[in-house]
């Protein structure tokens, strides 16, 4: 589990940085000093850490650190040096790099799936939950998504406390390719995506800390029934994983779909 002090650090940063509706890892870029060294930097203007999986194709060059390289980029006002590529001036050289990024800190340890989440709404009797498994042998190919059938305008509640790291609320209509959503990062490194929320219903700001049961947005019926979709993610070795979720009310036995 992440040190709880990290939550306090993120909250301190959120009070001093401007909030934007699409906070993400801002940039990975290089600087060539023309003296035989190329510096690779990362900037993180979000409020939570990201893990980068840095890969590169080098011709007549070498990396200071063995590649591929997995790095955690924490929020900071200043750029973070990732690695350097060196070459011999006067020789023909080239480089190409890629840096898939995941929300959170990859630790190589299995995610903790024992936490009991609250229901992301009040209308427990109208819930329809389910998890589906994609075809494939890799554990990372399993999809765990949970759908909640709600009337339009019902409060969408935080199923777990955390930090709001991203949201979208400008889609007039939720579709498979475009949807309104809100993402909340949890202290154990997991994060929850609440999808198919109503347009212009998010009353929160990026970097804000929310508590379990707090209102995040409202549900959206749209032009046809659009269930609230709830998915919990966790950093994987090369791509995010979707975690199975247990739901329960206080003083009730947890219910596994």
Provide keyphrases for this structure.
disordered C terminus, 4-stranded antiparallel sheet, 257 residues, mainly beta, 1 helix, 2 domains, disordered N terminus
> Would you report the number of β strands?
21
* Series of H and E elements: HEEEEEEEEEEEEEEEEEEEEE
Please tell me the overall pLDDT: 81
Oligomeric state as shown: single chain
CATH superfamily membership of the largest domain: Glucose Permease (Domain IIA)
Global geometry = elongated
Instruction: Compute the number of helices.
Output: 1
Major β-sheet profile: 7 strands, antiparallel
**CATH architectural arrangement of the largest domain:** Distorted Sandwich
- Unreliable segments (pLDDT under 50, ≥5 consecutive)? 1-23, 251-257
Fraction in beta strands: 35-45%
Number of domains: 2
CATH topology of the largest domain: Glucose Permease (Domain IIA)
Span between termini: 25 Å
Helix content: under 10%
Structural category:
mainly beta
Cα Rg: 21 Å
Q: What is the CATH class of the largest domain?
A: Mainly Beta
């Amino acid at each position: 589990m992440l040190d709880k002090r990290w939550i306090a650090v993120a909250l301190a940063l959120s009070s001093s940085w401007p909030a934007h509706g699409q906070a993400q890892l801002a940039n990975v870029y290089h600087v060539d000093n023309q003296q035989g060294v190329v510096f690779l930097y990362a900037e993180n203007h979000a409020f939570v850490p990201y893990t980068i999986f840095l890969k590169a194709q080098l011709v007549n060059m070498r990396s200071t650190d063995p590649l591929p390289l997995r790095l955690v980029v924490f929020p900071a006002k200043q750029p973070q040096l990732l690695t350097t590529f060196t070459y011999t001036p006067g020789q023909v050289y080239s480089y190409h790099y890629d840096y898939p990024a995941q929300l959170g800190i990859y630790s190589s340890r299995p995610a903790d799936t024992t936490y009991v989440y609250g229901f992301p709404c009040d209308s427990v009797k109208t819930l329809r939950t389910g998890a589906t498994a994609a075809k494939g042998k890799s554990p990372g190919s399993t999809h765990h998504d949970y759908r909640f059938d709600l009337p339009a305008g019902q409060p969408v509640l935080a199923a777990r406390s955390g930090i709001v790291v991203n949201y979208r609320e400008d889609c007039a209509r939720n579709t498979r390719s475009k949807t309104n959503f809100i993402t909340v990062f949890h202290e154990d490194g997991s994060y929850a995506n609440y999808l198919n929320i109503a347009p212009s219903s998010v009353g929160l700001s990026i970097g804000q800390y929310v508590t379990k049961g707090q209102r995040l947005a409202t549900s959206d019926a749209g032009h046809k029934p659009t269930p609230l979709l709830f998915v919990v993610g966790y950093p994987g070795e090369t791509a995010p994983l979707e975690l199975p979720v247990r739901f329960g009310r206080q003083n009730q036995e947890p219910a596994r779909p």
